[in-house]
Amino acid sequence: SRPFCYCLEHTAPSHFPLKSAMSSDESSSEEVFLDSAEGEGGEGRPQYANKCELMLSLVGYAVGLGNIWRFPYLAYTYGGAAFLIPYFCALAVLGLPLFVLELGLGQMLRQGTLGVWKELGRERMQGVGVAATICTFLVSLYYNVILAWTLYYLAVTLLALPSGILPWSHEVPGFACPETFMFPKASVADNADLFTVGAGFNESYRSDFWCPVFGIPTNTSEAPPGYVLRSFTPEECPARAAVKFWSESVLHQSSGMDNIGGLQPGLLAAYTVMWILVYLIVFKGVSSSGKVVYFTALMPYVALVAFFIRAITLDNAMVGLNFFLKPDFTKLTNFEVWQRAVTQIFYSLGVGFGSLIAFASYGQKKDDFVGNAHKVALINCATSVFAGTVVFPILGYLAHEMKGVNPCIEGDNLEDLKSIGLSGTGLAFIAFPIAISRMPLPFTWSFIFFAMLLCLGIDSEFAMIESVMTVIHDANVAPGMSKPAMAAVVCGVSYVLGLIFITEGGIYWFTLFDYYSCVVVLFFVTFMEVFWLMWANDSTYTNFAAKVKKWTGRRLGLFYKVMWKFVCPIIILGLFIMAFSTHDLMGAETSEPYPQGDGYLPKWSIYFGWKLGMPPVFAFAAIYMVKLEQDLDVSRAVRAVKE
Length: 643
Known about the structure:
Elements: H1 4-9, H2 29-38, H3 51-62, H4 65-77, H5 84-109, H6 115-119, H7 126-159, E1 180-184, E2 209-210, E3 230-232, H8 238-250, H9 265-282, H10 286-296, H11 299-311, H12 317-325, H13 335-349, H14 355-361, H15 369-403, H16 425-437, H17 442-474, H18 483-497, H19 506-516, H20 521-534, H21 538-552, H22 558-578, H23 604-612, H24 615-642
Antiparallel strand pairs: 1-2, 1-3
Helix pairs in contact: 2-21, 3-10, 3-14, 3-15, 3-17, 4-13, 4-15, 5-13, 5-14, 5-15, 5-22, 7-9, 7-17, 7-20, 7-24, 8-16, 9-17, 9-18, 10-17, 11-15, 11-17, 12-15, 14-17, 15-16, 19-23, 20-22
């Protein structure tokens, strides 16, 4: 394979023959932009069959797994409905302006994240597009593993149909509940009726047990004087069963990152199927993926509506819904709440990855991209809120069911559920499966839930692969290579590199990539986008706005000019700085081997993680220096000829 700088050096667009003779990017910005504005640009570039395909692709990309498991967890942690205030503020001042900008760049210039810089006359900045693409590629490697987990759950659900018992249920033959530890008062600790068959403890003694502030005690918990440690083996332990299935049957989790172990056959099969499926979706580019989104983008909404109808009819559903809708405004005084809201909007809309630019480059040039951005952004946020009205009633039901199993879980307090894990994978692969296993028609709801997750995730996955393929095509890395062949190469390489995530230590590598791979790059990319549009040359924004007015008939108002020039750069720069404020993002320094802890993370994982996030930035710097040297060489040659 050829290095990035080689590809960029030999692919200057034919309609800018004099660009290489310029001594600086700034000297020709206005001329180049206006030249591009007069033509169609991107001649011969594939297009979506209609506007509906583009809109569904954007919705499918923006609305993903984070809407279902990330947003509800943030609302759960940061004040319920009060979290909506910083969330929608972040949408208005950061998410929406960046979303509009990336759609506009892609649609107006008819190029992917690499080509837009050439069209803007900023060839030195093509490294920004390369940085975004490397980040996108890294995310696509581990994101498909989530889909493999989901497919695995979906498959075992179907395979368990003859038995009538979901495989993560405590009713599975051969499963025995582990010993449970509690701290009753010394005065009742030896009562014969303290523990009862089935329920595990006598409900009438609930007030006589000591419990931690949140969660359930262990044999190492330190109870106050007057309480003594007692243990028993309950007949029902839905949380333990679900955690055991996730950790041992799905992940085969090793003791730590330094113990990779072997590949898991079942998960390997699911992983292989997912990459084949992604290839079949993208192998013809937008002409094939544009048809798939009719199902993958719409099916999750049908499933969410079905879940909502079922959720609000469950026992204790209103307790969960009230927990979500009742605002705790005291949380808003915590700066962390606002930081989380901003980063959630940033990642949820998917800005900075290059995928939005790639999608828009395949749209009709006269489409109202500003209106499209408004619609998709609002759909994305509305989906998050609606998902909250689905998730919280189910959590209320889960608290009600767990209330009879452990005295430290109260049905009217969802805070107690923190002990089973409600963030990210914990909500999707532990909390929801527990609730589903105790609902009527559990197999039906299990199938609907994991099919919904699959559709939500695969949209985002093939969007990232499309983005990578777009850059490869625009950079002319493999001239003459057909779309199917290019898709096969990208998917094949991704498949091999991602095998580490389905080993016994794969969950630790998954976490490392999730925390570190793009922690800096996305902020860097979006900062460069707004900076070079608004600050590098006065004419760049003026010409961009003129082009938008010419092709779409829409005038970019003062709002976007202020956001792009002042507000967005300041916020992004703040996020960029805060990204370096925490050295150990995964908690490696306090980690303990599994199963005593969540898994051992060696200290070298911290340094490896930060190094993992640096190649995109180094790629940008290298390409910038190569282009700068080329411009200087040309300038010297021009001066020599004149002399």
